[in-house]
Write a structure and sequence with these properties.
Layout lengths: L1 E4 L5 E4 L1 H25 L9 H6 L1
Antiparallel strand pairs: 1-2
């Protein structure tokens, strides 16, 4: 278990696995938000899938 405090001082405790999962998934969430905004502006969002990067 990792004990830590947020920027507001709230104490939390999570496993390393939970923290790493959060780090990995949080970036995907924001990439989705950006892609949505680009589409709303009639643009074509960049390909951000890991598997597409590995293939190139």
């Amino acid at each position: 278990m990792v004990q830590y405090r947020t920027t507001t001082g709230a104490p939390y405790e999570n496993t390393v696995e939970e923290i790493l999962t959060q780090v990995l998934l949080h970036g995907a969430y924001h990439r989705g938000q950006i892609a949505l905004l680009v589409r709303q502006l009639d643009g074509q969002p960049a390909v951000t899938d890991f598997i597409a990067w590995v293939r190139s």
